What we know:
With 186 residues, this protein is mainly beta. It has 2 domains: 20-85, duf1285 like domain (duf1285 like fold, Roll); 90-183, duf1285 protein (duf1285 protein fold), CATH 2.30.270. It is globular. The chain contains 3 helices and 15 strands. The strands form 3 sheets. It has a 6-stranded mixed sheet. Strands 9-8-7-12-11-10 form a 6-stranded mixed sheet. It has a 3-stranded antiparallel sheet with strand order 13-14-15, with helices on one face. The chain is 13% helix and 45% strand. A hairpin with a 3-residue loop joins strand 5 and strand 6 (79-85). The protein has helices at 10-16, 55-62, 149-158, and strands at residues 31-39, 45-47, 50-51, 65-68, 71-75, 79-85, 90-98, 105-110, 115-117, 124-127, 134-140, 143-147, 160-164, 167-174, 177-183.
Amino acid sequence: MSTTATPDSLFEMLSRETRKLPPVDKWNPEHVGDSQMRIASDGSWTYQGSEIRRPEMVKLFSTILRREDDRYFLVTPVEKLEIDVEDAPFIATDLETRGGGETQEVLFITNVQDLVLADADHPLRVENPDTEPKPYLHVRNGLEALISRPLYYRLIELGVEQDRDGRKVLGIWSAGEFFELGSYRP
Length: 186
């Protein structure tokens, strides 16, 4: 089962990806302040309470986002401005699969057009897997994407049962890694 976010497949888009992100982890500007910006749990960005409606601006800001412990900052070489993030800074909006079984690959695209292959460096995790699951995907440098509810249901459909530590779990394989989605209940 696979779908695409554009006429091109996500894997084709990944093969053409040339975007380089700014080295925000190396920048340590002296000026620190408040950006008066917020990322809501639905992935919308606001400035002083008004929604930023230009996707290009949101995408640009997303490239200079950095996480430090539980705080988020927009970082440039000359300033570091705190930004309020309600849940996760990104939303995984679509996915595509390639292959099957333990060699399957699951590629996600986020609301800011990041392409992320679930693998050892970009793991999936699920908070509250057996009650009210909240699935997340590691995007980069401690920044995560909340996996949208429809995508989570698609992951469940892709799920396979595994015995892990004496219990049955449901999960998916991607890039040779098994990611638990929750306990298996036949």
